[in-house]
Design a protein that fits this description.
The chain is an alpha/beta fold. The protein contains 15 helices and twelve strands.
């Protein structure tokens, strides 16, 4: 007896990211894997390549190998894709070029870059057409969103408005909220068929940019962590009560993460006679500044800049710490907080953006005003003095993540959004 063919996936979608995979965006990998486990056929595309040196996990290497890159071989790919469009629908080629020229900021540089986005959009359209894809989803309102909306514009002109060409967007913030005109954010919100917002705060920032007629297409879709991967340490962090408080900070070394504030807090803690060890995991432009400040404050024996760490090795970092600290000035809803909480590490972070949708002060850790090294030091000192309190906060934090921020919950919401897009009328 022959085995009947497997049923075709109900949802087929292209995912386009400016760089995929990326060490700082592992939550996108998790989302895609969770959707695939639900039977969604996801085809990944990247504008730029992920260098081999940045592929720090087996999953990243697998995803990089299966992901076409739009600027991979320009001389080979672009003439073929553009010639195909000019042969099929020359009016669509010129009309989309004109749309690109009218999009976004009005500076000469922005107009030039829109020309590049147009060139890339034709190649994306070419790839999607060859694979029978009609829906593209993007993360971030950056180049990937520019390319996606132009590619869908081409598809609608070539195949007609009822052919199912759609695009959707996951909004994170906060960078785009400070560059509304530069990234053409309001126009992208109006153009997209659906928008996944990672927090209620994020959704509210988009609502202020567009009319109420666009609000219904904004849906809450949380980022997530796998609690079966991010597990508490086997020893439950027992036996550390007499040692130094181990503080971990994970994130890009950039100004908005507030790294120097943590260094100031560590200096205050040392002045109070509180013994600590600190690790910063991540890389970025602020590394030189942090190293200089560590020397100036005399903290070289207390603070280690670990550098970037791949997901395969991150769990060991969370297990090392007693407290996770993220003193950011600017965030969306950080996945690293979810990862830390999932390992039962209490967190100390700042009262900004959507963070309090995840971390409740006094329940999962402490949430303090941003930029206040004194308050940060007070919160860390309180946790240093009370190991039992640390354990109780950590247990509550893991319970909160398991309740709302798992791949199962997030992929269910994301699948609902993708399905609503593909079922919606033109």
């Amino acid at each position: 007896m022959t085995t009947p063919p497997a049923p075709a996936p109900a949802v087929r979608v292209a995912y386009l990211v400016s760089k995929y995979p990326a060490i700082s965006h592992t939550f996108i990998e998790r989302e895609i894997q969770a959707l695939r486990e639900r039977g969604v056929e996801v085809h990944t595309f990247s504008v730029r390549p992920c260098p081999e040196s940045e592929q720090r996990s087996e999953l990243m290497r697998r995803e990089a190998a299966r992901t076409p890159v739009l600027i991979d071989d320009v001389r080979r790919d672009y003439p073929r894709a553009h010639a195909e469009l000019l042969r099929l629908a020359p009016k669509a080629w010129f009309a989309t070029l004109g749309r690109a020229a009218r999009s976004g900021d009005t500076t000469a540089r922005a107009r030039l870059w829109q020309g590049f986005y147009f060139a890339e959009s034709v190649l994306l359209w070419h790839h999607m057409r060859a694979r029978g894809l009609r829906h593209v989803h993007v993360h971030f309102a950056n180049v990937s969103a520019d390319v996606a909306r132009l590619a869908v514009h081409i598809g609608r002109l070539v195949d007609g408005p009822d052919a199912g060409w759609r695009w959707s967007l996951t909004m994170h913030g906060p960078t785009e909220f400070e560059r509304v005109a530069e990234v053409d954010l309001a126009a992208k919100v109006e153009s997209a068929d659906a928008i996944a917002c990672i927090s209620d705060f994020c959704r509210s920032q988009l609502m202020r940019l567009v009319g109420p007629e666009h609000w219904d297409k904004m849906q809450l879709v949380r980022m997530s962590v796998d609690p079966d991967v991010y597990v508490p340490p086997a020893d439950g962090r027992q036996g550390r009560d007499s040692g130094p408080l181990r503080i971990l900070d994970v994130g890009r070394l950039v100004p908005e993460k507030g790294g120097p504030v943590l260094l100031e807090a560590v200096s205050l803690l040392r002045g109070r006679g509180i013994d600590v060890e600190v690790r910063f995991v991540g890389g970025g432009e602020l590394e030189t500044v942090l190293r200089r400040r560590i020397d100036e404050l005399g903290l070289t024996d207390l603070v280690t800049l670990v550098g970037p760490v791949g997901q395969d090795d991150m769990l060991a970092q969370y297990h090392w710490c007693d407290v996770f600290c993220l003193p950011s000035f600017q965030e969306g809803l950080p996945v690293v907080l979810m990862e830390a909480l999932a390992t039962q590490a209490p967190v100390v972070t700042t009262r900004i953006a959507g963070i309090e949708e995840l971390v409740v002060d006094g329940v999962h850790g402490h949430v303090v005003a941003p930029g206040r090294a004194d308050l940060l030091a007070d919160a860390l000192a309180a946790l240093a003095a009370d190991p039992d309190r640390r354990r109780a906060l950590g247990e509550a934090g893991r319970a909160a993540v398991v309740a709302e921020f798992t791949p199962s919950a997030a992929s269910h919401a994301m699948l609902d959004l993708l399905t609503s897009v593909q079922d919606s009328p033109a």
